[in-house]
Each structure stands twice: as structure tokens, then as C-alpha cells.
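Researcher: Go.
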Amino acid sequence: MEDFIKLCYRTTCYHCQKDVDQNITAVPNGAQVVCGNCRATRAYVPVIEEISKKGDYVKPGCYDIWNLVSTALCRQCKVNGPHDITIGCRNFTVRCRNCGFTHLFRFNLEYVDDPVESAV
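Model: Structure:
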């Protein structure tokens, strides 16, 4: 399956504290943010898909909220256009600017992928 959303956002990693790219991926059945340096990963699970207003589901959290934009094909209106991506420590939303169709993901798991352990 192709990625619905795939982009990078450069910021300070909450885990390693380095200013590096955070690799962001979202598909209908999940989303994640992975540090390009230490591989610290925040995984999000789908909660709901519906038409919503901009700003719905945005709640303050323990980290800064990232407001990003990416071009993607909307599953609802089928327009390949801008989608607003809002990522916080509790929620991750992807919202089509054309029709308002929103994917809401909730934080589920945080882990650090150890490349040495993975190679064994």
C-alpha cells in the first residue's frame, strides 16, 4: 500500500534532543513520527474519519503542536490537493482542505528502535 502522507519536519527530537528530520508517515490504518537520528518512534492508531472543521481535535499537550501541509489524494473527494496535518503528543490529524474530510489518530505507543538489536 502506498503512503497517504509522507514528509519530513526538522525540529528538536524529544528523545535525543538533536535538531534533525522527523519522518512522518500516515496511512488510513495508522500514523507515526520517527526521529531521523535516534529512531525514537511515536505511533498513532486511527480513531475516526469524518468531515470536520479546521482545528477540531487539536488539544494542547506536552510538546509543541506541529501544523504542516502536504499534498495527498483525498479518500473522500478524490482531489489531489493540500491536506492540513496537525501533530501533537496525543493526537495526529490529516484534513483535506477541499472537503474537510479528516483522519483522526490517537497516540498509542512510543519506542526507540535499537538498530543493533534489530540486526540480530
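Model: Residues 34 and 70 are 17 Å apart (CA to CA).
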